[in-house]
Amino acid sequence: MPFLLRRFMFYFSAFLIAITFNFMLPRMMPGDPVEALFAASQGRMDPAQMDAVREMYGFLDGNIFEQYLAYIKSVFTLDLGPSVLMFPVSVSDVIANALPWTLFLALGSLIVSLIIGVSIGTYASYRRTGFFGQVVPPVLAFVSNFPYVVTALFLFYIFGLKLDLLPLAYTYDPSLDPGLNLAFISSVLEHAILPVGSMVLVGIASWVFNMRNAMINVLGEDYVTMAEAKGLSSYRVMSRYAGRNAILPVATAIAMAIGFSFAGSIMTEVVFNYQGLGNILLKGIVARDYPLIQAILLILVSAVLTANFVADLLYVWLDPRIASEG
């Protein structure tokens, strides 16, 4: 328990530091959202109304410390205020509409790349001297070195523009009404193929090499040699003996991958005009929508820290010696 308590306090402190930077970064941008709003109106709004509009949006007067305390209160009460970009819609409602699509894109690509990568890495460790182990991992490493945007644009051009096989924009066919029916679900999956595929191509190599290297280290252990001497099948040795211990470092890598998946999904959404947090964040930055920018960054920080804490819990469950040593 002391180990888990220390880890929790560490992540909570990291969260406080992160939201402090989250508070400061938008305010380091030139101007403010109200000034941008009045500039966009091209003289159709009375400058005398600026103070009233600032108060309406919740941009309080006073020193930076008072604004910071108000921001901290809004974070822990989840009262994020109205969006400047989509006023009078609240930031919470904007996030609620966009977040499910980003989660679907980020977690879907992570799960697919994890399953495929771990499977390839496990098999490549057993066939590391053969054609599969010598060729497949380097090829995947080469493909994964391209940034998310480059891979997304490549798939966009080949399968969307040239071959016209898959849709290039939106989360589903706009002519369909959302619902739990075959037509809508099929449209969602079809529109997700290119963005998810681009993220899988970028992320798969890390899982292949993590699992391959971990398995190679484990395969030299005495208990694996004993299992093989007993005549157990290669599949059982890989899954029940070597795989359980080799998955330990991969569990930690999952937490880091969640952050990269969210970042990758945000960039990929812009390429494919996918209606998630990426598009909303880009529009919010252009409009200097402080509440919206801060809310999206808060979600990203919370997701990464929570995933790391869960990875610590999983690590303790897989290897109880860690808690006793800590």
UniProtKB/TrEMBL annotation:
Coiled coil: none annotated. Its main location: membrane. It comes from the Bacteria. The chain crosses the membrane at residues 101-126, 138-160, 180-209, 246-272, 292-318. SUPFAM superfamilies: MetI-like. Keywords: Membrane, Transmembrane, Transmembrane helix, Transport. One of its GO terms (cellular component) is plasma membrane. It is found in: Cell membrane. GO terms for biological process: transmembrane transport. InterPro entries: MetI-like, MetI-like_sf. It holds the Pfam family BPD_transp_1. PROSITE patterns: ABC_TM1 (PS50928). Residues 99-311 form the ABC transmembrane type-1 domain. It is a multi-pass membrane protein. Belongs to the binding-protein-dependent transport system permease family. This is Peptide ABC transporter permease. It comes from Enterovibrio norvegicus FF-454.
